[in-house]
Specification:
Blueprint: E1 2-3, E2 31-41, E3 44-50, E4 59-62, E5 80-87, E6 92-93, E7 95-99, E8 102-105, E9 111-119, E10 139-141, E11 145-148, E12 156-157, E13 165-170, E14 176-178, E15 182-183, E16 193-198, H1 201-205, E17 209-212, E18 216-221, E19 224-231, H2 239-257, E20 265-273, E21 284-287, E22 291-297, H3 302-318, H4 329-332, H5 345-362, H6 368-382, H7 391-396, H8 413-428, H9 435-445, H10 457-464, H11 467-477, H12 485-491, E23 494-502, E24 507-508, E25 511-512, E26 514-517, E27 523-526, H13 534-539, E28 546-550, E29 553-554, H14 557-567, E30 575-582, E31 585-592, E32 597-605, H15 611-622
Helix pairs in contact: 2-3, 3-5, 5-6, 5-8, 8-11, 8-15, 10-11
């Protein structure tokens, strides 16, 4: 998963009957799930699930509590309404609803089907504090678009996750699907109905579907067929207008990965949000084996949108290496309602994010200066999290505090961990071996059907590499000692310098000075643990301050976007009045905004370094 910080800127066909159903133990048995996206009722769709004949007296139906790649508790069951269990005579069976994600049916042998209405998640994002991250969410917009992350629509019965599924979708004739799910018939019998097949429940939720008006492009990247499908509410963006940059980027990725071959098909489902009160506000993407759902603001200028797509989609595509290919038993046998988390987020997200930046410098998509700037942004951003926290402990306990609030550090320090490991491996192997080499070696042993044991991975990596690597893991990944990045910069002939740089009032490049507290009514606050620009000291704001109002305007997600837009027209003499909450006290601040200046630490090349150091730098960035 990749979260992209931009929020602050600009019918039912039931198959079979009781007399013809087969036992669930029969290899030809299947579960038939139907979704009607034509007869939408109060922005909800009807789902019907026919599980076949039960041989047990009791069964439990589950909707996921969490799904792979999200690392959060989302409780998709809270979006279900009017749940019914129906017997073969059409009568309702009794059930108990012990928790938000499960329904216990005590007369399972009589059960013919279950039905329920499902709400979408996008409508609630600006309302509830525990909103689902948009790329893992759902959208229902009659006759316009449907984002079907299927874990938000379809559940599973106890002990039946490995049963084949048939998915029947009754759809508007004007909307077309993009998905990696396979059609039962290549040419559907009816234009308003599509029937998909899946080997098991995981394959259902691993293959999201975007229904929208035709707006897609397909291109070939060596042996991978890529489809880019775009939903743009105003029509300003088309797949054709974004295709070239995506094709260039994915060609570079494939060249970077070389012999690693994870898929023959890849679908990019891009949803562009209007960012209004009932649309997506969580921007980024969620990985799947052969596709990704990407959510970004439609208001982004094309150049920024394309770069965001490069950064986000490249991250998700690199997930075909890990954890979609190289992963532990916790990932392979994921429990959607009682998850056991792996301790290797340093690899699943950290390696992936590192690759998403490294390949761009290696393949000539960005300059050395841009690459260095990205590294230093990650160093700066990582300081806003607990730097003295074991990464393996955090990963294993990521669903609970205090680890949960440090999750986003997997994209910052996680990438830097891999940078340090990469440089160390290059140094020990005279430039021949790095993190990409390591992942290729692991891919030879572990794949989509062969997981590793969580507790054995680090030992295996040490055996595959060098004894010195054990010390790095023990000290900085298993251990909680912060990494001295300057040590690794010096190994490749780089040093840090500090310069003053003019910035925006609320952002320095892509790094925001303010953030959103989703667990506190989406309160806007000044970030802590990072260097703030002079604007904040000029006014008297401090890290941790919750911004209540600016110039009399109450601050929320909608109003802060407007004020950020206005700030681009501020001059140093612009007067501002800010009310903040600090230590439960309301404080009024005012003054001139001044010229927003920030002390920025940059990487620069050292003079007069040895040939060995220059060769190591070249091996790190260019090989």
């Amino acid at each position: 998963m990749r979260r992209f910080v931009y929020v602050l800127m600009l019918g039912m066909l039931i198959y079979g009957c009781g007399a013809t159903k087969k036992m669930n133990t029969n290899a030809t048995s299947k579960i038939v799930a139907s979704i009607n996206i034509v007869n939408v009722k109060e922005d909800k769709v009807l789902v019907t699930i026919d599980p076949g004949v039960f041989t047990t007296d009791v069964t439990t139906f589950f909707i996921p509590k969490t799904v792979p790649g999200t690392y959060s508790i989302d409780n998709y069951g809270k979006y279900i309404e009017d749940f019914k269990a129906i017997d073969y005579e059409g009568n309702e069976l009794s059930f108990t609803h012990d928790d938000v994600n499960s329904w216990n049916i005590t007369e399972a042998k009589k059960l013919d089907k279950i039905t329920y209405y499902i709400n979408d998640t996008y409508d609630s994002e600006g309302v509830v504090s525990d909103a689902v991250f948009s790329p893992a969410g759902t959208n229902i917009l009659l006759k316009d678009n449907f984002v079907l992350n299927l874990h938000g629509f379809i559940g599973y019965f106890q002990n039946l996750k490995e049963m084949p599924y048939e998915l029947v979708i009754t759809k508007p004739k004007t909307l077309f699907s993009t998905t990696s799910l396979k059609l039962k018939n290549e040419t559907p019998v009816e234009l308003d109905k599509e029937i998909f097949i899946a080997n098991r429940y995981f394959d259902i939720i691993d293959n999201p579907i975007l229904y929208a008006k035709p707006n897609s492009e397909t291109f070939q990247i060596k042996d991978i067929t890529v489809t880019l499908s775009v939903y743009s509410p105003t029509g300003i963006y088309t797949a054709a207008s974004l295709k070239d940059r995506m094709e260039q980027m994915m060609t570079a990725q494939k060249d970077f990965l070389g012999e690693i071959d994870g898929t023959k098909e890849y679908n990019i489902l891009l949803y562009l949000s209007k960012m209004d009160g009932k649309d997506a506000t969580g921007f980024g993407a969620l990985e799947h084996h052969t596709s990704t759902v990407v959510v970004l603001p439609e208001a982004m200028p094309k150049e920024r949108l394309e770069q965001a797509m490069v950064d986000v989609v490249s991250h998700e595509f690199f997930h075909i290496v890990t954890p979609l290919n190289v992963h532990s038993e916790e990932v392979q046998y994921f429990d959607y309602n009682d998850p056991k988390m792996s301790e290797h987020l340093w690899m699943y997200e950290g390696t992936t994010e590192y690759f998403a930046n490294l390949f761009q410098i290696q393949q000539g998509l960005i300059t050395e200066e841009e690459f260095y700037s990205r590294i230093m942004d990650k160093v700066a951003n990582s300081k806003s999290y607990d730097d003295a926290m074991s990464f393996t402990t955090m990963s294993k306990n990521i669903l609970s505090e205090p680890y949960k609030k440090n999750y986003a550090n997997v994209y910052e320090k996680g990438a830097l961990i891999n940078m340090a490991l990469d440089i160390t491996l290059r140094e020990l192997s005279n430039g021949e071996k790095g993190i990409l080499w390591l992942m290729k070696e692991l891919s030879k042993k572990y794949d989509v059907t062969t997981p590793f044991k969580d507790e054995n991975l680090i030992d295996e990596i040490v055996q595959m590499t060098y004894p010195e690597i054990r010390n790095f893991f023990d000290t900085h990944i298993i251990g909680d000692k912060p990494i001295d990045y300057t040590l690794y910069f010096n190994k490749v002939g780089l040093a840090t310098i500090t310069e003053q740089q003019q910035t925006g009032y609320f952002l320095a490049g892509e790094m925001p000075f303010i953030d959103v507290d989703s667990e506190n009514d989406n309160a806007i606050f000044v970030r802590e643990g990072i260097e703030l620009s002079s604007f904040y000291s000029n006014i008297g704001m401090q890290g941790g301050d919750v911004i209540k109002s600016i110039n009399g305007t109450t601050i929320n997600l909608a109003s802060i976007r407007n004020i950020i837009g206005e700030s681009f027209g501020w001059t140093p003499d612009t007067l501002i009045k800010v009310v903040v909450i600090r230590n439960d006290k309301e404080i009024a601040l005012e003054g001139k905004v001044g010229a927003s200046v920030l002390n920025v630490t940059k990487l620069t090349s050292l003079d007069n370094v040895s040939e060995n150091i220059l060769n190591l730098r070249k091996a790190w960035m260019k090989n």
